[in-house]
Design goal:
Elements: H1 2-29, H2 45-57, H3 61-64, E1 88-90, E2 95-98, H4 104-107, H5 112-121, H6 136-139, H7 144-155, E3 168-169, H8 173-176, H9 195-205, H10 208-212, E4 232-233, E5 240-241, H11 258-266, H12 278-281, H13 289-292, H14 297-307
Antiparallel strand pairs: 1-2, 2-3, 4-5
Amino acid sequence: MKFLLKITGGLVALVVVVALGGVAYLMLAFPNVPPAATVTLEPTPDRLARGKYLSDHVTGCTSCHSERDWTRFSGPVKLDRIGVGGQEFLLGGAGAVYAKNITPAAIGSWTDGELQRAVTAGVSKDGTPLFPLMPYLHFGAMAADDMHAILAYVRSWQAIESQVKPRALTFPMSLIVRTIPAAGAPQPRPSPDDKVAYGKYVTAIALCSDCHSPIDDRGQPLPGMSFAGGLEFMETGYRVRSANITPDADTGIGSWTEQQFIDKFKAFETPSNAVLSEAERRQNTVMPMISYAGMTRDDLAAIFAYLRTQAPVVNRVAKFPDAQ
């Protein structure tokens, strides 16, 4: 009996040692990305204009990192709170993360290289690995000149102090997150003449797949369901599910024309400032339609062309389950 107890105790001790060794390895070896590059981003007028267009109307940097007014349609950005962070993003069993303050009040001491590494490789100035809700896995493949334009534009924002809650990742995600960051590999921006290739690029940096593809309880995309919708959000205070934007004619956008797709966005170029009623708030959208309405018609048409190349998926989505 004593012998069995000794064996059991030894096995438990071995498991503990192996577990501690694994944790130590994760803490020491990851995140495994190169040091921040030496980069200087000159805020030229052309670069700032391109950065403003991308951040405000395509990539979502402005809408994700600013306070939004959910009493109005599409939660427009509060213009006096641009970049202050604080938006909560619930991750199911993995916990919750909060958008960071990215005004110069918070990142003024960062070098341009450190800022670029955070956005394209997922590692903060102090070495903290970022959760990939900050879409560095997409932005790491963005054309370098587009990325530099966005970063220069963000640098131009007014400095605003704000307190943001620390993220709360549950185990084992608190360790897994260390393994996710990866060195960015910027790719050239395709020519707009190749409408589908250019549309794929714009779709990727606009993060359409991230919001319009359902995921499992571990946050992984469901196989065969890209762009099929159904991902649930709670930012408005009510449940909202993303639409199916595959070319399925019945449950997706297969019956839409290019013009209808463009008009869907451009209808909000001059938004109403009306305060929504309680019933209307139950059918509000988390999608920043007012921001996307500023996208050029050519970019919207390219996104539509790329979406038309996707496999149609039958998935009827109840977009506003709390509307009744």
